[in-house]
Amino acid sequence: MEKTKCPIPVFIPLIVGIVAVSFSSIFVKLSDAPVSVQGMYRLLFTILFMLPFTKNQWKKAKLIQPKQWLLLFLSGTFLALHFLLWMGSLKLTTVASSTIILALQPVFVLIGAFFLFKERTSSASLMGMAVAICGAALIGWGDIGISAENLLGDLLSLFGTLAVAVHMLIGQHLLRHIPSFFYSLVVFISAVLVFAMYNGAAGIPMTGYGGHDWLIFFLLAIIPTVFGHVLFNWLMNYVSATTISVNILGEPVGASILAYFMLNESISLFQGAGGFLVCTGLYIFLKTSRVPDHIKEASVPQNV
């Protein structure tokens, strides 16, 4: 379907969105609250921001089949798992390593689409995937020399990326039948419930945090979510999902620069080389993959 013309220059919302999502990892590191609490309140505040627009949404609930309700809850579960693992990785490894590995999610989405939906892609895209994966392996290899904790953080980011890829693949299936706003609302509510059950079972307090932590919870909902991923979703009305996917590769760069100035985190030679390979490989992959638009839209990070 042909895209309509964006009412403002496209580069403006792209830059705003990339800068906004780059702050996500910074905010996580600036709070001492458990990541399961950060993730829960980030999504809860996002739901509260969505409430004014939900007046007619629940009328659509009667059209949802029991199997679809189960998949909605499953999608929310994997979204919560993604936050738990990826945000947890930031407590163990650097922003650069964690966000570069997270950028591999389009690769995992396409791999899942191949096995689930028999979607195929070009040899050039496969080469790009291989380059990107080698870059991620180089980052992990370099972090082995720093500490076992850093390597564990890299692995958590990798598993968090796998979790969000599953979340996106379920969403790709459901969004063929369910309006996107209703899908996001129910998935966010499901993820909040999963976090609440996890925190309760683990004995993690959900109240009693200081003003600084509550500010971080609020900023996580506003800046990377509303001014980041919601903005990207709006922009897909005017540009292709591939355009957004390629440009969002700026997130690891932006996050690493912010971490250098705000957290005093330096970038090692392995991280720099690995990050270059990941971004180069993903650029090749995203520009050459011959897959349907709904698969490419699933590869755009929606809720990181």
TrEMBL record:
Location of the protein in the cell: Cell membrane
Keywords: Cell membrane, Membrane, Transmembrane, Transmembrane helix
Start and end residues of each EamA domain: 15-140, 152-285
Top-level taxon: Bacteria
Membrane topology qualifier: Multi-pass membrane protein
Main location: membrane
InterPro entries named in the record: AA-Vitamin_Transporters, EamA_dom, EmrE-like
Family, similarity comment: Belongs to the EamA transporter family.
Protein name (Swiss-Prot/TrEMBL): Permease of the drug/metabolite transporter (DMT) superfamily
